[in-house]
Amino acid sequence: MKQLKWTAAICSTAILFSSVSMSAFAAPTKMRDISTMDYVREMGLGINLGNTFESCGEWIDKWGDGTPKAYETAWGSPVITEDMIKGYADAGFGTLRVPVAWSNLMGDDYTISDAYLGAVQEVVDWALDYNLHVIVNLHYDGGWLANFPTDKETCMTKYTRIWEQISDAFQDYGDYLVFESQNEELGWDSLWNRWSSSTDGKAESYALVNEINQKFVDIVRASGGNNAKRHLLISGYGTDIDLTCDPLFQMPQDPANHCAVSVHYYTPSDFAILEEDASWGKVRSTWGTDADIQQLNHYMDMLQTSFVDKGVPVIIGEYGCPKKNKDADSVRLFLSSVCEAAYSRKMCPVMWDVTGLHYDRSACQMYDSVLQENFQKILQTYNDTKIGDINQDGSVTITDVVLLQQHLLQEKSLTAAQAKAADTWSDGVLNSFDVTALRQTVLTFT
User: Fold this and answer.
1) Domain ranges of the chain
2) How far apart are CA 26 and CA 253, in angstroms?
């Protein structure tokens, strides 16, 4: 009799939800009650849409046709398509970072072109359609931020206008969209040179970085809509780990308490940056010595101690290396090692990528299937979510089944971690199939 009741309940549930498919992820306009620490964990592994919307230069203005595509393709990228974006999700990435030079096609009073904003917005929409978290930033943008120390008023006016417009355009987007205050440009050698023995100007330079980041938070929070609670990414000092971990760097005050810090990892630079010898270094083709691994762990431990352990989430907004004049196994080892070192410490690593490097924008897939497999193994190894344990009490019981049913009936909402645990089919969708599978699990083990 008990079995018959279970079967009837299962059939009833299947009929009730046969036409209902509720995503385990955020709806386009949904803001969930989730901490930024949990949110960063949810982001998984990321990849950059590099050398695309952040392309800039007067020659593009002069020789281009005046459309967003002229900038989108100026640095070698094809026009971005929905299939390319889908390919990132299919490859297992959970986050897409979209660097942007907002001065392109900018009009009077620092007004962003509707066409340019629309082109960026289209890519963001595609990414959200495939359940990718999206980071939109203000990138190098022609270098005008270098003038902050000498023309602060003008620069702050432009900075404010840019973020007011971005905030307004995306204010109704859900929490799968993140704003990032800046790329690597916050920190000025004209005020303080880290390589000098003097500390003159250091406090001033840090104070200006902190002021700009605080301005960013204030602009977004005051802009209305979902921006009052949006998760924000705060650029570290030059996104350098050593400099960002300096006590002079301060996270901004945020009434929503929804901020993470961004740093980049291109260490050692003779391997991770150089493709050929330069005046400051000799190119290195291999990576993976004991000293290399020790150096990597040193920096990741520094981030964990300085931020994660203190409740401040960390996103490695860029890490990577070129392939030219590099040993292929070393490239794979470096990328996998950095990814694992960050993700195992509950940080989100976002690999830097451009056309023709790690992701094939023509075939819409990774060039290196072994690297892709390594990334998936990292996700599986450090995934701390027990499938089915929706209420996170350490076991799978009828209580979890009831909680999922209440969610599907829109009686209760699930946090991101709970939704992930409820996705028993691992298809990114919560529906009657998950209820049935969860019921069967309870029956089997009770």
Assistant:
1) 2-21+387-444, 29-381
2) 26
Helix axes 82-90, 114-129, angle to 10 degrees: 40
For 36, the token pair is 């930024």
Query: Is residue 425 within 8 Å of 437, Cβ to Cβ?
Result: yes
CATH of 29-381, one of 3.40.50.1220, 3.40.50.1010, 3.20.20.80, 3.40.50.300: 3.20.20.80
The conformational region for residue 320 under phi > 0 = left, psi -120 to 50 = alpha, else beta, is left
Calpha distance 378→45 (Å, rounded): 9
This prediction's pTM? 0.84
- What is the distance, to the nearest Å, from the Cα of residue 399 to the centroid of all Cα atoms in its chain? 34
CATH number for the domain formed by residue range(s) 2-21+387-444: 1.10.1330.10
% helix, strand, coil for the chain, step of 5: 45, 10, 45
Measured CA distances, 142 to 139, 186, 359 (Å): 9, 14, 26
Distances in Å between the Cα of 5 and the Cα atoms of 8, 11, 270, 373, 398 are 5, 10, 67, 43, 14
**Residue 70 φ/ψ, nearest 5 degrees:** -60, -35
Report CA-CA distances (Å) from 113 to 67, 120, 164, 171, 405: 10, 11, 14, 18, 46
pLDDT in tens, 313-354: 999 999 999 999 999 999 999 999 999 999 999 999 999 999
Query: How far is the C-alpha of 298 from the C-alpha of 270, rounded, in Å?
Result: 18
- What are 3-52's pLDDT values in tens digits? 333 333 333 333 333 333 333 344 456 888 999 999 999 999 999 999 99
Single out the residue of 179, 284, 189 nearest to residue 232, CA to CA.
179
Q: Which of 87-96, 289-298, 395-404 has the lowest mean pLDDT?
A: 395-404
